[in-house]
C-alpha cells in the first residue's frame, strides 16, 4: 500500500530511506536531461576517465537526444586540431547564432522608416542601456562573419575538400557565402545614415545595370526610382526574414551534408582518390562527449570574450549624419566586401563589370567541384587549380584596391583640401580641423603664408600678405566672398597663430603643405582660415583657398615647354585668381576625435 | 590517447579556460553596465553639440538672410537671439522688490487700523502681539515705516524708470519692457522648443501682412525643403542662444528688430481715421445718426485725396485684419465677391439708405458696422472698432481692393 493513494517519491523514501531515495531521484533527473547519462557517467566524463559501464552511455545522447542527434558521436583525431579546419566552419555557425540573437534584441529598438530609423539609432545610443554595446556586437559580428565565411571557403578549396563526394556541400557553401554577403549588405542600410545610404546606393545601382530587366530589378530592389521608405522596408524585410530563412535552411543542408560525408581528412592522411572520413579507426576516435564538447564550450567562451572585449574597448559601429539624398559625401564607397565590384566597375561597362562579371565569378565558384574532376587533393597535383585560385585572389585584392576612392576618382585639388580639413567623421577618420580643442580655436584670421616664410619672418610675411591683398583689391573680393557666405566682418586683419594653440598651428602647417603639394594646379595659392564666435559655445570656421587660374584641358593642367602651367589672364592681361571656400561650425561639446 | 591536437590537451584546463573566459565576459558586461549612464549622457551631449553645428549651417544657409547672421533680426524678420523670445523679464527683480514693499505697507496699515479701532474683542496678549508686530516693522523701516517704505518704493520706481530708459533703443525697435515674453504675447501654452519647432514646420503664412514677406513653411511635411531631423537641428541651434537668466542689457540693445504682435502692431500705424464713431452699439445708432453722418462725410472727403493700393488692401483683408475669415463664407457674413455691385444694385436701393452712394455705404459699413445691418445677418457680428484701428490710407486700400475685386471669381463655379 502506497503512502499516498498513488505511487510516489514518498514510497521510495519509505522503502529505501531518504538519502538513497534522493540520490536515485537526482540520478534519474540527470539521466533524463542528458538523454542517457547518469550522474556517475557525467562525473567520469568530466574527469576525463573512460566510461565505467557498457554500452557506452556517452553515445546515448547522440542516439536518443534531440540536440546531439545532429552531431557525430566521435571525430577523427586528425580533424580536432587547428589544422585543417582552423575552426572556420564552427566559427561561421557561431556567428549565425550570434547575429540572430543580437539582431533579435536590436529589433526591439528599430523601426524601418526613413523618418524614424535614424532617430531610433540615436535613441539606442543615448537612451537604451547596452544599446550601443549590442549594436557594436551585431555590427562587428556581421563584418567578422563575412570574413570568416570567405576564409572558410578558401580553406575548403585549398584542402580540396570540395571534391567528390562533397560537391553539393561546396555548392550550398557558396550559396551561404552569397546569403551572408547580402545579409551584411542589407543590414548596412538600416541605420539610415549617410554611410548607409551612399554605400547601398552604389551597391544597388548595379541592379539597374542588369541586362534587359535592369529597370524592373531596380524597382523591385528599391521600391521606387530612389532609395526611400519602400526601399528601406524591403531591405529590412530581406534582412530580418527572407535572408535569415535562407541562411538557416542552407546552414541545415550544409551541415547535414558535412555529417553525411564526414569531415574530410587532411589530404596527406589518406591515399589519392580515397575517402576514409566515415571510417574512423578505434585508436583515432575522439569522442564528442567529453572532449569535443568541452573544447567547443571553451571556444564559445573564448570567442564571445574576444568579441565583447573588442566592443568594450576597441570597436564601435559607425553612425554618420542622417541620410541625405541631396548631399553626396566625397569618397563614397561600397562596404569593404563589395569593393571588388566597385573596383571592377571602374574598368568599364557597368552591365558587364557590375552584373555579368560577378555573376560569372560566383557561378564559376558554384560549379568548381563539377568541373574540377581530378581525384587528388594534394597540393602537388593541383598546380593548375591553385594557380587559378591565386590569380583570382590577387584579382580580388587589386579590384578591391581599385574600388577605393583614391583610385581613379579625380577631384579638384581645392575641393580635396577643403574636404580633408573639414569632413565629418566617416570610416573612423575626421577632417583635420574638427579635433582641434575648442579653446585652441582662437578667434582671428590666419594665413598659410605665415608658414611659407622662413623661421622668424612669419610676422613680416603676414603683414606683407595683408598689404598684398589690400593692394590688389583681393581683400575686397575676400570679404565679399565671405558676405555671400553669410559672414559679415567689420574688418579683416591677419595675425599669427597663437603659440598656445599648437593643434591649430599644426593644422595650418598641414594646410600650407597641402596647397604647396598642389603647386601646379593651385598656382601661387594661399589659404586663409577665419575663426569667428557664432554662439557662446559655438565657433564658425571659414576656410578659403585662393589660387591663380591656369589653363586646363580635360581637367588636367596644360604645361608649357618648361613644364610650367599656363596662367589664365583677363582682357587686361592680368592673371585671373580663383577662390574656393567652405565653412564649418564647431561646438565646444562635439568631442571629435582623430 | 594523444589529444595534443585539441590545443588544450587536459580537460580540466579546457574547463578552466572556458570558465575564466565566461567570468571575464561577465566582468566586462558589468563594466559596460557601470559606465552605461555616463556613456549615454556623454553621447547625448555630443550629439546635441553636433546637432547645433548642423543647425548653424542650416541657419546660415536658410535663415540668416532674414533673421540676420547673428540672429539679431533685420527689417525682414525678428531677432531670435533675443531676450524677448526667451521670455527674459529685465524688470522682474525690481517688480518683486516693489511688490514686497507694498505688501509690508499694507500689513502695517492693517495693524495700525486694528490697534486704532475697537480692540475690546481682543485679549491683552493679542494686543501685545499686534504691537510687537508693528514694533518689528518700525525696527526694520524706522520711526515712520510707511513713509520709509514709500520712499523705498519711489526709489525702486526711479530705478525701474532708469532701467526702462536704458532700454530706449530697444523700445524704439518694438520692445515692450512690460511684455517681456514672446510666448505670452502670442498665447503659446507649450514650451519654447515646441514653439520654435512648430513655427519652423508650418512657417507663418499670415506674417506677410506685417513683414515684407511671410515666413515660409520649412518642413517637408508642410511642403517645405527640410526634413524633420534638420528642423530639430535648427531648433537646437536657435535654443542654444538661450542664456538662462544671464541675459544682459547689451544683449537686448544688440537686437536689431523685435517681433511684431499681429493684433497690435499688425495694423496700420497712422492716425486713426474716425475714432469718434468707434464702438457704436445698435441701440445707440439712432441718436448718433448726426455724428455718424458727419464723420462719414468727412472721411469720404478726405479719401478723395488718397489713392488706395488694392494689393495692400488684399493683404490686409486676408491677413492682419482677417476680414476674409468671415466674409469668405456667405453664410456668416456678406461674401467678398461682388461687394461693390451688391452695394450699388441692392443695398442703396433700400429706403433706409436713400441718397447713399455705394462708396459711402461701404465706408459707413466698415467704420460703423451697426449703422445698417444687411438683411439675413446678425448685428454686432463685425468688430466695431475699425474707426480706431484703421488709418486713412488703409481704409483707402481696403476700398480699392473691394472695388477692384468686385466681380465674382469666374473659377468659383
Shape of chain B: flat
Number of DSSP strands of chain B?
A: 0
Provide the structure class of chain B. Answer: mainly alpha
What is the general shape of chain A? elongated
Total domain count of chain A: 2
Residue fraction in strands of chain B = under 5%
Structure description:
The complex is a heterodimer of chains A (594) and B (413). Chain A has 594 residues and is α+β, with helices and mostly antiparallel strands. Chain A folds into 2 domains: 87-271 and 321-403, Cytochrome Bc1 Complex, Chain C; 413-587, no CATH class. Helices cover 52% and strands 8% of the residues of chain A. Chain A is built from 20 helices and 8 strands. Chain A has helices at 9-16, 18-33, 39-47, 60-64, 88-107, 117-127, 131-158, 167-189, 194-208, 214-222, 229-261, 288-314, 339-345, 350-371, 383-403, 413-422, 449-452, 458-472, 474-484, 502-517; strands at 74-76, 285-287, 444-447, 523-535, 538-548, 552-553, 556-557, 577-587. Chain A has a 4-stranded antiparallel sheet with strand order 3-4-5-8, sandwiched between helices. In chain A, strands 1-2 form a two-stranded antiparallel ribbon. Chain A has a two-stranded antiparallel sheet with strand order 6-7. In chain A, a hairpin with a 2-residue loop joins strand 4 and strand 5 (538-548). In chain A, helix 5 (88-107) runs antiparallel to helix 7 (131-158) and helix 13 (339-345) packs across helix 14 (350-371). The longest helix of chain A is centred in the middle third of the chain and has 33 residues, at 229-261. The mean pLDDT of chain A is 91. By secondary structure, chain B is mainly α. Chain B folds into 3 domains: 1-89 and 180-262, Cytochrome Bc1 Complex, Chain D, domain 2 (Orthogonal Bundle), CATH 1.10.760.10; 92-166; 275-404. Helix content of chain B is 56%, strand content 0%. Chain B contains 17 helices and no strands. Chain B has helices spanning 11-67, 92-116, 124-141, 145-166, 168-172, 182-185, 192-202, 228-239, 249-254, 262-265, 282-303, 310-318, 324-327, 339-345, 358-367, 386-389, 392-404. The N and C termini of chain B lie far apart (99 Å). The interface between A and B is large, with 59 and 59 residues.
Amino acid at each position: 500500500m502506497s503512502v499516498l493513494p498513488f505511487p510516489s517519491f514518498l514510497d521510495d523514501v519509505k522503502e529505501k530511506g531518504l538519502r538513497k531515495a534522493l540520490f536515485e531521484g537526482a540520478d534519474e533527473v540527470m539521466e533524463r536531461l542528458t538523454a542517457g547519462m547518469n550522474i556517475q557517467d557525467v562525473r567520469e566524463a568530466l574527469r576525463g576517465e573512460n566510461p565505467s559501464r557498457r554500452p557506452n552511455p556517452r553515445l546515448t545522447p547522440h542516439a536518443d537526444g534531440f540536440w546531439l542527434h545532429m552531431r557525430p558521436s566521435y571525430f577523427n583525431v586528425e580533424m580536432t586540431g587547428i589544422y585543417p579546419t582552423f575552426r572556420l566552419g564552427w566559427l561561421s555557425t557561431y556567428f549565425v547564432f550570434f547575429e540572430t540573437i543580437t539582431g533579435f534584441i536590436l529589433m526591439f529598438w528599430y523601426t524601418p522608416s526613413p523618418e524614424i530609423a535614424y532617430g531610433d539609432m540615436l535613441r539606442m545610443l543615448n537612451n537604451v542601456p547596452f544599446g550601443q554595446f549590442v549594436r557594436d556586437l551585431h555590427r562587428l559580428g556581421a563584418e567578422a562573419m563575412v570574413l570568416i565565411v570567405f576564409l572558410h571557403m578558401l580553406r575548403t578549396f585549398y584542402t580540396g575538400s570540395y571534391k567528390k563526394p562533397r560537391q553539393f556541400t561546396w555548392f550550398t557553401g557558396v550559396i551561404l557565402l552569397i546569403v551572408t554577403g547580402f545579409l551584411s549588405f542589407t543590414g548596412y542600410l538600416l541605420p539610415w545614415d549617410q554611410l548607409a545610404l551612399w554605400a547601398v546606393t552604389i551597391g544597388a545601382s548595379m541592379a539597374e545595370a542588369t541586362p534587359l530587366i535592369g529597370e524592373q530589378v531596380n524597382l523591385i530592389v528599391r521600391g521606387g526610382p530612389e532609395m526611400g521608405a519602400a526601399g528601406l522596408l524591403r531591405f529590412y524585410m530581406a534582412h530580418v526574414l527572407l535572408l535569415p530563412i535562407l541562411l538557416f535552411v542552407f546552414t541545415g543542408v550544409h551541415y547535414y551534408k558535412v555529417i553525411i560525408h564526414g569531415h574530410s581528412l587532411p589530404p596527406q592522411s589518406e591515399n589519392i582518390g580515397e575517402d576514409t572520413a566515415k571510417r574512423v579507426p578505434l585508436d583515432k576516435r575522439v569522442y564528442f562527449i567529453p572532449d569535443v564538447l568541452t573544447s567547443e564550450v571553451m571556444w564559445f567562451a573564448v570567442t564571445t570574450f574576444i568579441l565583447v572585449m573588442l566592443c568594450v574597448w576597441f570597436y564601435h559601429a559607425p553612425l554618420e549624419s542622417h541620410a541625405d539624398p541631396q548631399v553626396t559625401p566625397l569618397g563614397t564607397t561600397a562596404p569593404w566586401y563589395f569593393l571588388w565590384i566597385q573596383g571592377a566597375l571602374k574598368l568599364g561597362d557597368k552591365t558587364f563589370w557590375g552584373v555579368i562579371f560577378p555573376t560569372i565569378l560566383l557561378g564559376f565558384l558554384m560549379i568548381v567541384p563539377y568541373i574540377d574532376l581530378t581525384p587528388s587533393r594534394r597540393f602537388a597535383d593541383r598546380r593548375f587549380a591553385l594557380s587559378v585560385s591565386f590569380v583570382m585572389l590577387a584579382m580580388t585584392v587589386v579590384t578591391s584596391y581599385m574600388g577605393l576612392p583614391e583610385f581613379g576618382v579625380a577631384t579638384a585639388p581645392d575641393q580635396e583640401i577643403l574636404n580633408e580639413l573639414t569632413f565629418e567623421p566617416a570610416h573612423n577618420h575626421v577632417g583635420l580641423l574638427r579635433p582641434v580643442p575648442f579653446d585652441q580655436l582662437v578667434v582671428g584670421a590666419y594665413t598659410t603664408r605665415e608658414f611659407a616664410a622662413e623661421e622668424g619672418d612669419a610676422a613680416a610675411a603676414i603683414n606683407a600678405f595683408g598689404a598684398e591683398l589690400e593692394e590688389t583689391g583681393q581683400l575686397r573680393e575676400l570679404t565679399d566672398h565671405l558676405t555671400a557666405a553669410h559672414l559679415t566682418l567689420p574688418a579683416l586683419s591677419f595675425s599669427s597663430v597663437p603659440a598656445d594653440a599648437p593643434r591649430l598651428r599644426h593644422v595650418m602647417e598641414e594646410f600650407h603643405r597641402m596647397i604647396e603639394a598642389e603647386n601646379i594646379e593651385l598656382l601661387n595659392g594661399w589659404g586663409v582660415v577665419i575663426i569667428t564666435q557664432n554662439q557662446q559655445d559655438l565657433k564658425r570656421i571659414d576656410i578659403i583657398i585662393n589660387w591663380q587660374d591656369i589653363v586646363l584641358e580635360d581637367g588636367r593642367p596644360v604645361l608649357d615647354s618648361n613644364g610650367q602651367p599656363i596662367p589664365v589672364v583677363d582682357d587686361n592681361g592680368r592673371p585671373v585668381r580663383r577662390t574656393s571656400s567652405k565653412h564649418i561650425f564647431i561646438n565646444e561639446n562635439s568631442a571629435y576625435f582623430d | 590517447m594523444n589529444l595534443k591536437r585539441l590545443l588544450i590537451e587536459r580537460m580540466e584546463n579546457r574547463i578552466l579556460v572556458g570558465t575564466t573566459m565566461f567570468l571575464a565576459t561577465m566582468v566586462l558586461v558589468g563594466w559596460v553596465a557601470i559606465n552605461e549612464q555616463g556613456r549615454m549622457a556623454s553621447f547625448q551631449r555630443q550629439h546635441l553639440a553636433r546637432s547645433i553645428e548642423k543647425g548653424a549651417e542650416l541657419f546660415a544657409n536658410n535663415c540668416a538672410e532674414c533673421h540676420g547672421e547673428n540672429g539679431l533680426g533685420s527689417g525682414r524678420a525678428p531677432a531670435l537671439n533675443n531676450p524677448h523670445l526667451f521670455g527674459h523679464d529685465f524688470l522682474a527683480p525690481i517688480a518683486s522688490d516693489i511688490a514686497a514693499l507694498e505688501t509690508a505697507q499694507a500689513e502695517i496699515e492693517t495693524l495700525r487700523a486694528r490697534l486704532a479701532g475697537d480692540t475690546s474683542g481682543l485679549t491683552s496678549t493679542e494686543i501685545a502681539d499686534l504691537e510687537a508686530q508693528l514694533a518689528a516693522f518700525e525696527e526694520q523701516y524706522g520711526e515712520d515705516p510707511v513713509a520709509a517704505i514709500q520712499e523705498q518704493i519711489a526709489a525702486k520706481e526711479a530705478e525701474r524708470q532708469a532701467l526702462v530708459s536704458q532700454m530706449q533703443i530697444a523700445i524704439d525697435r518694438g520692445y515692450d519692457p512690460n511684455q517681456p515674453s514672446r510666448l505670452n504675447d502670442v498665447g503659446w501654452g507649450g514650451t519654447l522648443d515646441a514653439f520654435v519647432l512648430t513655427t519652423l514646420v508650418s512657417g507663418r503664412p499670415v506674417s506677410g501682412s506685417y513683414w515684407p514677406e511671410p515666413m515660409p513653411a520649412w518642413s517637408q511635411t508642410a511642403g517645405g525643403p527640410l526634413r524633420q531631423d534638420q528642423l530639430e537641428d535648427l531648433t537646437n541651434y536657435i535654443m542654444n542662444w538661450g542664456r538662462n537668466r544671464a541675459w544682459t542689457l547689451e544683449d537686448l540693445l544688440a537686437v536689431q528688430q523685435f517681433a511684431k504682435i499681429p493684433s497690435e502692431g499688425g495694423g496700420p500705424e497712422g492716425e486713426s481715421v474716425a475714432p469718434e464713431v468707434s464702438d457704436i452699439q445698435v441701440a445707440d445708432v439712432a441718436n448718433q445718426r448726426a455724428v455718424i453722418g458727419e464723420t462719414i462725410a468727412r472721411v469720404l472727403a478726405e479719401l478723395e485725396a488718397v489713392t488706395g493700393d488694392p494689393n495692400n488692401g488684399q493683404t490686409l483683408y486676408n491677413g492682419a485684419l482677417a476680414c476674409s475669415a468671415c466674409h469668405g463664407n456667405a453664410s456668416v457674413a456678406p461674401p467678398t465677391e461682388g461687394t461693390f455691385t451688391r452695394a450699388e444694385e441692392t443695398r442703396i436701393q433700400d429706403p433706409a439708405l436713400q441718397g447713399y452712394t455705394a462708396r459711402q455705404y461701404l465706408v459707413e459699413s466698415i467704420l460703423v458696422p451697426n449703422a445698417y445691418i444687411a438683411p439675413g445677418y446678425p448685428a454686432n457680428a463685425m468688430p466695431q472698432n475699425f474707426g480706431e484701428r484703421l488709418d486713412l490710407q488703409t481704409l483707402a486700400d481696403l476700398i480699392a481692393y473691394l472695388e477692384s475685386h468686385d466681380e465674382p471669381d469666374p473659377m468659383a463655379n
